[in-house]
Automatic annotation (TrEMBL):
Domain named VOC: residues: 12-127, 145-263
Organism: Amycolatopsis sacchari
GO MF entry, a single one: metal ion binding
Name of the protein this chain belongs to: Catechol-2,3-dioxygenase
Keyword Amino-acid biosynthesis: no
Superkingdom of origin organism: Bacteria
Length: 316
């Protein structure tokens, strides 16, 4: 195993929850165009699953006056690990939003919530019931699972340090620029190249949420289906160097960036060493050379609107 500052108790990313001013438009997009399955609703809430994932849901939408990240949820292996993480964070002075206890969302489980260093609400849970899921078939251009979540940070160095020091995330790679310095840090909590990443930005916000498709053909079919439907494409299709995954970035109706991807790299953690990748090199941004150029327009879209939910836990 890699040399970690603290034991790694987080196993994977579960779901990303968004507060949205127009719930109806978001539900229609994620169900009708993005390819998720609505598995539960409540007053002002929609829970959406990926057909190939055992997670109860991978996206939760909540009607909200403000556009925000409600929370990002990660899994742990056991309730004892949940307790150990809560104890560690409390000892280190991190603000707990809730103490470990029963999770009151689909699938139940045992978990707690806390604020990270910039005020995002993070949930960690174990013993969540697995959803009856299925194998996504050849040619089906729908998400198999939530691949990773990337956030924008006004203090990326501090945010990376927070997740490494308190939660045991490991650094996989860094995107850098000869004049602007380090710009994005890819963090892992399992052998996938990244489940979480942090980008430099003037303000904290969602950079993008990424969804894994079955393979290259399904990824391209999904990309084409969204293009034919008139969904605004930001960047892609292409293949990144860091992580070696494909990418097609689109905007949802509220202006959040969402990605179709496939073939994210799995690392040999015993031998892996983080690399510095200069994204002014076209091969770093897109090995294929098929994507539109990464320019100020693309970067601006990825900055998103400032998150209005910092240090303000969602009501559900």
């Amino acid at each position: 195993m890699p040399d970690l500052a603290v034991p790694r108790l987080i196993t994977h990313v579960r779901h990303v929850d968004l507060g949205v001013p127009d719930l109806a438009a978001q539900r229609e997009f994620y169900k009708g165009q993005w390819g998720l399955t609505e598995v539960a609703t409540d007053s002002g809430l929609s829970f959406l699953a990926a057909e190939g994932s055992p997670e109860q849901y991978v996206v939760r939408l909540r009607q909200s006056a403000d556009k925000r990240i409600d929370l990002i949820a990660f899994g742990a292996a056991t309730p004892a690990d949940v307790d150990a993480l809560a104890d560690r964070l409390a000892r280190d002075g991190v603000t707990l939003v809730s103490e470990p206890g029963t999770v009151a969302t689909p699938g139940g489980g045992y978990g707690f919530r806390f604020f990270d260093n910039e005020g995002r609400t993070i949930e960690i849970s174990a013993d969540v019931a697995k959803r009856a899921h299925r194998k996504v078939e050849e040619g089906e251009s729908i998400p198999v699972r939530l691949s990773h979540v990337v956030v924008n940070s006004a203090d990326p160095e501090g945010t990376v340090a927070f997740y490494e020091r308190h939660l045991g995330f490991a650094l996989s790679d860094i995107l850098t620029h000869p004049h602007m310095g380090h710009m994005m840090w890819f963090l892992r909590c399992n052998p996938w190249h990244h489940s979480f990443a942090i980008a430099r930005c003037p303000h904290p916000s969602l950079h993008h949420a990424s969804f894994e498709l079955r393979g290259i053909d399904e990824y391209m079919r999904g990309t084409g289906r969204l293009l034919r439907a008139g969904v605004e494409k930001i960047w892609g299709p292409g293949r990144h160097k860091a992580g070696n995954n494909t990418f097609s970035y689109f905007l949802d109706p509220q202006g959040n960036t969402v990605e179709y991807t496939t073939e994210l790299e799995r690392l040999d953690e015993d031998t892996w060493h983080p690399g510095l990748h200069d994204f002014t090199d076209p091969e770093v941004s897109d090995q294929w050379g098929t994507a539109n150029r990464m320019d100020e327009f693309v970067a601006r879209k990825s900055f998103n609107d400032p998150d209005k939910g910092l240090f303000l836990a969602p009501p559900v």
